[in-house]
Fold FAD dependent oxidoreductase.
Amino acid sequence: MSTVTVLGAGLTGLTTALLLARDGHDVTVLERDPAPPPADPLAWQRRGVAQFRLLHIMLPRWRAVMAAELPDVLDALVAAGGMRTNLLHLRPPAATGGRREGDERFDVVTGRRPVVEAAVAAIAERAGGIRILRGVAVDALLADASGAVPHVTGVRAGGRELASDVVVDALGRRSPVAGWVGALGGRPPARERADLGFVYYARHFRAASGVTPTGLDAALTHHDSVSVLTLPADNGVHGVAITASARDRELRGLRDPACWDAAIRLFDATAPWLDSEPVTGVDVMAGIEDRHQEYVVDGTPVVTGLVAVGDAWACTNPSLGRGASMGAVHAQLLRDVLAAHGTDDADTLVRAFADATATTLTPYLDSTLVFDRHRLAEIEAEIAGMPYRTDDRGWAVSTALAAGAAVDPELARVHTMIGGMLATPGEVFSDAAVTGRVLEHAGPPRRVGGPTREELVATVAGTRV
Ligand SMILES: Cc1cc2nc3c(=O)[nH]c(=O)nc-3n(C[C@H](O)[C@H](O)[C@H](O)COP(=O)(O)OP(=O)(O)OC[C@H]3O[C@@H](n4cnc5c(N)ncnc54)[C@H](O)[C@@H]3O)c2cc1C
């Protein structure tokens, strides 16, 4: 068994640490934020995770990984007030045709991000084989750079050096590690980086009845120049967010609660979600980058002794809610690759992990990027008052699926397979019968129950302080 240093005690870092420790590895986790989870997770100060207060849903794929690997995390989340519910059956019964055999694959356990992360952290804190050192900032890699490919042997953190067989970068979307690798003198990692240009305006509410509303076509609905996200959370609390283009100056007033409230009430299906007590102001996040890096370039590692997982490997616009699921699957892949290859052959380890990532996760990353780029272009076209046109047949199929899912229970399930990260669009649409059924709904995007762009802008302008 090996010594492993995991950088970052976020959702992915802790999940990775748990899976590796349970496989017998000796794991140390280094986390810059000093505070362990307090008794009230909502009081937790997590400066290292900018999106800590924003809406999060843990998809069916995340629940499935946890149920298979770390059921105690799900138990801890439920004990902390997390809700067991079903992503498909958040839709109205008319759209789902009621419960059917197999629908349990869409089960989820929901919770606000601090509540979910505190549940994972509580299990990790008491697990054997893991040392979590908080208040420790990693600032450099230790490496043997004498060979053709630099080999990472550990890290430097707060003036001390920590050696290990493998270093796992789980430092999240702003991880500096690829830059440190570039400075080791070998070939640079492959890196892509772009600001996707979305902004989130989010609030949480507590339903007076204690019963979380349901009944939208899906948790994420698209309306002209904005999308609306409605998510159950924990302890009777739910969240509602509007996502828009960060360049959309006319909607910037949405950061004001009165303005946000007036705007969201224009969406018929969303309004019932507001008949509740707000428990937050409007949390805003922009500057959300799409970042992706690879340590195997043109088939050859540029570094060994180091792998990146979760957001440190790739992160995108989060409106599809895939980040935690991607991180959990990545943790499983690393555990399996380490079990198969160990750490003695450093080159094989890095290659095998890159192969596993490319096979299992890259298709989800690619489909998320395609969605993001089309949706942002569609929003920009709506703002300019033009219909969005593209030659990409994939976008036409995806738009048709969203329309079909609102009226055809079979397609609601297909849509939730993709939305729940249980299948990629490529896997689903390789079935010609499914594609044929979806294309019966082809046409302009279905926009129901929302304001026109003019009404939305006028409402924001009229209530802006
Ligand atoms: C607005 C928004 C909404 C989102 N909604 C969803 C959603 O609904 N569902 C979903 O699954 N995902 C969602 N995501 C994505 C999700 O938040 C991320 O995928 C997830 O946080 C990734 O976890 P991670 O552990 O890889 O990284 P992080 O959570 O970013 O953790 C990185 C850790 O590294 C620590 N760190 C940083 N630098 C150092 C250093 N030098 N030394 C030591 N420690 C350091 C940080 O303090 C932090 O604890 C959303 C993201 C955003 C931006």
